Amino acid sequence: MVKHYRPPGKKNEGNAARFITRSKAIKQLQVSLPLFRKVCILKGIFPREPKKKVKGNHHTYYHLKDVSYIQHEPLLERLREIRAYQQKVKKAEAKKNPDRATLLRQRSPAYKLDKIVLQRYPKFLDALRDLDDCLTMVHLFAALPAIEGCIEVKRIHDCRRLAHEWQAYISRTHRLRKVFVSVKGIYYQAEVKGQKVTWLAPHPLQQVVTDDDDFNIMLNFLEFYEALLAFANCHLYHSINVKYPPILDPRLEALAADHYALSRYFDANSRSSAWDRQESSLSGSGKVESQQIGPLVDESELRLAQLQHQLSSNEPGALMPCGGCSR
Fold first, then answer.
1. Which residues 6+ apart lie within 8 Å of 123 measured at CB?
2. CA distances from 289 to 114, 171, 280, 281, 295 (A)
3. What three-state secondary structure class fits 310?
């Protein structure tokens, strides 16, 4: 009998053909390790544990289909362009050309995660089921202080804005079901669209950040969670006929009265929607009464005042009503 043998160059079979180590995946994609981790976090790809580890137990394995899925991702090419652009900025700084470095920073390319959010969550209920860790992370960074070179001030303000928008929707629609105070923080549980969402908010105390925390991985998760929470807030606000993003009074924001500003925004939108419905019914019947339109015109002045921030005005109280300026 002729002995069967494997011809040279034949592909592997079993786990050796389905799984690949992290080092080989990085070499195949031609990216660095931090960039590979970032893409995996944004795309929701995680390591796998094969039944038989061909290369040993000290390696991290990924499924070959996941690696090929990343290889054809347009975001990967965009991140490569951004990395090459950052090298231009460093080169200008090394040559002591601050004008060119400043110009390059102003023209730095950016990217959006809207398509990735829609790919990972084709249904809105899927996004609601995955909001627990998202809300906990956003509320955590909203309470942290800004650290130079690590956590930017804009990132802290964005997290606070998203957290306040979520809290305003929950309080406005009466979705809160349970609250529990513990040593770690305050646990909240709300029921939205039939789904129970639970998150942890830290106590309003001064947070101490240690040096052994790795914020690089956390910031990559936060980048995706910000896009996910903005997508959820937009969908929820539109479900109650409220425009998103909310237009708030800058004077109230300067006084750290974000919740009060959001409540006024909700009231203005509810009144304007009621006015639109009544106006459409009056136009259909052909009967217009001055007693009904008179108070509604006064109520619409608040909505018009909230839109004044789009004009080039430097007055601090431009969005406040005239009666409040005289007080």
1. none
2. 46, 35, 13, 12, 11
3. helix
Q: Is the Cβ–Cβ distance between 38 and 79 less than 8 Å?
A: yes
**Strand, coil or helix: 178:** strand
> What number of residues does the chain have?
327
Show the tokens assigned to 200: 């942890």
pLDDT in tens, 24-51: 999 988 888 999 999 999 998 988 888 7
Q: Which residues are CB-neighbours of 51 under 8 A, at least 6 positions away?
A: 15
Task: Name the residue with tokens 């409040």.
Answer: 324
pLDDT in tens, 227-263: 999 999 999 999 988 888 887 767 766 666 777 778 7
**What number of other Cβ atoms are within 10 A of residue 247's Cβ?**
19
pLDDT digits (tens, 9 = 90+) for 153-162: 889 999 999 9
State the average pLDDT over residues 69-96.
89
Question: Structure tokens of 120?
Answer: 């990972």
CA distance linking residue 159 with residue 139, whole number of Å: 7
The mean-pLDDT minimum among 131-145, 160-174, 196-210, 297-311 falls in 297-311
Strand partners, 186: 181, 201
Q: Where are the alpha helices (DSSP H) in the chain?
A: 15-18, 22-29, 33-43, 64-71, 74-94, 98-106, 114-120, 124-129, 131-143, 153-173, 215-239, 250-254, 258-285, 290-306, 322-325
Enter the pTM of the model. Answer: 0.76
Which residue type sits at 312? S
